[in-house]
Design brief:
Elements: E1 41-48, E2 54-65, E3 70-81, E4 93-98, E5 108-115
Antiparallel strand pairs: 1-2, 1-4, 2-3, 4-5
């Protein structure tokens, strides 16, 4: 084997999502471990990456307000598990998938980086 990394088929085909190039031995990794991804998929921006193996992903969305016949911008922050084989930094646009609860406030996992920060 010439540097080929064996990854699982997680059943998600998303434009711009590629499996990680490096391997890891984390059981909570959807690509190399036993974690199943089910439910929703969301795209967001990494807001904070201070915790070990966890990032905070912020997503913005529009909500229609009937009274004023306009849209208002809202945002939510989601805690997501970060496998060691996926490298991110604050500002990156990532795809996260819903999983079983991994901690008190973590039920999402980072599947990959869609676009990075320039610089």
């Amino acid at each position: 084997m010439s540097g080929e990394v064996k990854v699982r088929n997680i059943g998600i085909s998303y434009s711009g999502l590629n499996p990680p190039q490096e391997a890891c031995s984390d059981p909570k990794c959807p690509w190399h471990g036993h974690l199943k991804v089910r439910g929703n998929l969301l795209v967001g921006r990494v807001y904070k990456a201070r915790a070990q193996k966890m990032v905070v992903v912020e997503r913005e969305y529009l909500v229609y307000v009937r009274k004023f016949r306009r849209y208002e911008k809202r945002r939510s922050r989601i805690h997501a598990y970060l496998p060691p084989c996926v490298k991110t930094s604050p500002g990156d646009t990532v795809l996260i998938g819903e999983t079983r609860p991994l901690a008190k406030s973590v039920a999402w996992v980072v599947l990959g980086v869609l676009s990075g920060v320039s610089g």
